[in-house]
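Sharing a chain and its predicted structure for anyone who wants a worked example. Both blocks are below, sequence first, tokens second.
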Amino acid sequence: MMLRSSLLLLFGSSSLSSYVVTDDSFPWLDPSLPVSERVDALLSEVTDEELVAQLNTDAPSIDRLKIPAYSWWSEAAHGVGWAGQATVFPAGPGLAATFDTKKLHAAGVAMGREGRAKHNDDVRASEDGSTSMFQGLNFFAPNLNLVRDPRWGRAQETFGEDPYLTGTLGASLIAGMQTEGDDGIPLAAATSKHFFVYNIESDFAMGGTDPQARLKINVNVTDADLRQTYLPIFSKTTSPHETESPARSIMCSYNAINGIPACGHPYLRQYLRDELEFRGFIVSDCGAIGWMGLGYHNYTSSDAESAKVGIEAGTDLCCGDEYNSVDAAAVDREKLEAAFRNLFTARIELGMLDPFESVSWSSLTAENDVDTPGNRQLARELAQESIVLLKNDGLLPLSDGGGGSGGSGGSGDTPVRVALIGPNANRSETLLSNYAGCTASPGDLTIDERCTIVNPYLAFEAMGGVEVDFEQGVDIDTDRTDGIDPARAIASQADVAVVVVGLITCQETGDQCQEAEALDRVSISLPGQQQALIDAVAQTGTPTIVVVMSGGTVAIPQIAENGNVTAILQAFYGGEEMGNALTDVLFGKVNPSGKLPVTIFSSLSDLPEDYLSVEMLDTPGRTGRYFTGEPLFAFGFGLSYSKREYSSLSAVLSDNALSISINVEQLSGMGGDETVQCYVSYEGTEGVSVPKRNLVAFDRIMLETGQRKEVKFEVNAKELELMGADGEMQVLRGDYVLSCGGAAPGSQGKGVMKGDELGVVDFAFTV
């Protein structure tokens, strides 16, 4: 029962007895009042010192006004991070490879519930309703920056290289996180980050030695690249005109854009507030306010000046404490108060100043609602869908010892003997990526001891009808080769060899690593002696499957072209259930359905020489949208165990939309999901810098053998807009080609593969 203004309000649960107040004295604690009135009432009572203090990460309590302390910093990149046990879903590229808006929404709901449960426990344990770091309801997630280069250390956090895919999936995840209860209170507040053009960590790829390049780099970007590549994700995830659940906050980035630090940039107001009509709060990346100053951007000369610039530009919340240095009297009063209003609007809308038990989500607890069987099943399904089958010479799916169907293995009661090899075959840390749950538990326990992570070795060991021999073979981070001969020996005695290679991240471990926040790669080749290991195993003649686990992709032309390597799978960092998901796919329990959210290149020569440039048209062009060469495996590519045919593509263009219809039929193979993709290419002659093609629609559908479905899309005409010679975004006059199918047009690339499962149908139209 919600107590009203005539009664005493209990702030928090019954254990928070010190916070018994009357609504008449503290109207900001009265849930019957409009949010704006509550915020204005509170603002009228705070001192300048109290106001400024609330604009920093760790907002202190205001005891006289019954405002508890609140830490704004919480993480949920692919599960609630840095707060103890939590469900670990696949990292960003894996989630993107699913092309599954429905399951990303479900994952968002799961993250929101787990975050709310942890928050509830933290509030219950406090004496005054305060919240500690990483236990709040404002997730600094998801990371929606684009992967313009596979060497980027934070590619593992993102949804890939395409703005349409990233924005669409991001909006689904955010909507799930922000699911509202019966009382209109959301589970959590998501953050669309990082605004903007942030995808560089270090200068190592250019021969530099600065691991802090991201904190001081200035990126020069054209209006065309801004509008066609870098900004659309924020429009799709934060504009109330493009999504029903705009992210409730936006994080500005470390870098400067065309000479101005992001957290002091005019675009915070001109683009976010005015053009997109964003009404949430804007938070700096952690430390970004201070790094406007000397020794970094040199844009300001002191923390006080940086704080003034940030507040007046529109950065409401400083992740850090630099705003404490500002002189309130020196800051535009309207903008200072606007920051306070934006932050307390968020807190009140999240139910933080309501009676605890009155909030619809107050019954959630970590014991009952974190890493539940249902959430683990969802993690497994997402991991299954994230696996991209790049090559299959008929080996997959494998049969087990029970006589199941497949391309290899025993029959009857004879167990299949598997040689499981490679540095990522029995390494649970690899599955976690960064910003993951299960990594902040106290004590000296290993990850396997404090988390329930199923890596490939554990999954194979748990299978019936399979005998497993394991050899690591080589390291990822050394050049030792003494393990290659033992790996070759077990492979020669096996029915099939599964070699699990890739990269490792080091966000939570002390290991040497290849990619991480603050660490970009210099090379895109497999590190260490992994290639030699694969070659040695394949030379035994035993059918060999290579599984690549990484965040950013690696160049694997030698593997793709090796005739003794019969199958290749890209698995990314797949979360706590990846081992089970991998065996599910290999043994045909599920049909592989993942599609690449990034381009896999053949070598560094496929990439522009200037790593620090953000220009899309830099020769030979960045990402599959601009790349002028032939990729090894293209964006949108992914095989299945089925053969499908596309036909009868048609489209009708109106002033507001492109209406598309296409038929897809499953001709043979096991049932499973297919991702139907549609791309538009501008074939006009106007002298403008445009992508080769733009993804404009996609949908996952289920098909059984012999089944045909008509798939329809209604594409907003906005998705066809390009920057014209006049500098305005518009639907350009001229000829276009619409291509729909199971992949992008021309996506076979140079990789060696069998089957014609990826039919693409074209339709020409003119504007």
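Comments welcome. The domain at 382-626 is CATH 3.40.50.1700 (Rossmann fold).
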